[in-house]
Amino acid sequence: MKGTEAATRWQGVQDRAGNIKDVLDYLFSKAQEKAITQRMTEHSVYVKDLLQWTGAKGVLVAVVMQSDVGQQMPPTYLSSEVVGAGGCPYDVLVAASLKPSDKLYPSPAQGSRVDEDASFFFWATKQSDNLKWTVLAPGSRGPLLDRAKADADLKRLLADKQPVDEANRLLALAAETRRRAVDDEVKKLTAQAAKDLKDVAAQRAAIQQELNSALHAADAAKGATAWIEKAQLMVSIGSLAAQVNAMLKPTAPASTLNAVNSASDVKGLNDAVTTYLSEVTKKVEFKQGQLKTVVETYEKVKVTITGEAQKAGAPPGALP
Predict the structure, then answer these.
(1) Burial (Cβ within 10 Å: 0-12, 13-18, ≥19) of residue 271
(2) Of 141, 158, 175, which residue sits at a domain end?
(3) pLDDT tens, residue by residue, 89-120
(4) Spacing of C-alpha 29 from chain mean position
């Protein structure tokens, strides 16, 4: 199913968007529609629980279809798995792509292949006491997964926000645990753990920011050292000092910049930059040690919250 055919099918889905049975009847044979509907029914209790525990807007479910290799046969049902809960389908997909599993990439039967054009996603949201299932565009699974994987790779490089996201999930988990707990001791323990989490999460964020600044400063100093080595025979000491000053100015203190500006030869310039590099390297090591200690404390609090949540009946998908 390619090009205009996929677009036509997607328009057909949109026309029937208010009724999931109509959508599945339109897309697949009776046998496949029955298999998918049965699996969605099995997912329903878990999906409702996940929405309750996480406070998320919705839950993403991946439905994967397969086709016989080299044969013109209609696609058949392969699997459907709960991907996760979150604010929107794409955010859930990116989070899941950080740790790929068989949920997104199941193995097809022998002689078959995953049919990306027929596979799709459900987005389940709460509607009163029931679930509203929305079908996301069939035929878009492949491009969506590729884009989500690319964004997940970027998120790994810019990982500062991940601890904040996890801390927020843990706080929501603690709140739901307290709401459901019968034992006053559990409520008290979870409330204290939530308070400790807020404190340690704030410490972690502050130290991480300071560490990032120190790492940036160290990179700038290393770059300046390399530039001095490369350019010392090409420009005058005055020009070289000005260039090094420009490289260090965003991160270095006035004392370092003054030492750079007053250098009368390459050795003096090198000494000023090397001294600064030594200072920021020590700061990096110190902040890394602080961060390690805070993360260890954070993990202990996390164990407490998730442990009490599990005792209160939290589903696995609600645990960070």
Answers:
(1) middle
(2) 158
(3) 888 888 888 776 777 888 888 889 888 888 88
(4) 36
Domain span at residue 102 reads: 3-158
Type of residue at 32: Q
CA 209 to chain centre: 19
Helices 20-27, 3-15: inter-axial angle, 10-degree rounding: 150
Residues 206, 264, single domain; the answer is yes
- What distance in Å separates the CA atoms of residue 220 and residue 249, rounded to the nearest whole number? 9
User: Pairing mode, if any, of strands 130-136 and 76-86?
Assistant: unpaired
- Does one domain contain both 51 and 113? yes
Work out the pLDDT band at 138, boundaries 50, 70, 90: low
Q: Over the stretch 1-24, which tens digit does the pLDDT of each residue have?
A: 444 454 454 455 444 444 566 666
Residues 130 and 57 in one domain: yes
pTM (2 d.p.):
0.56
Give yes or no: residues 275 and 169 share one domain.
yes
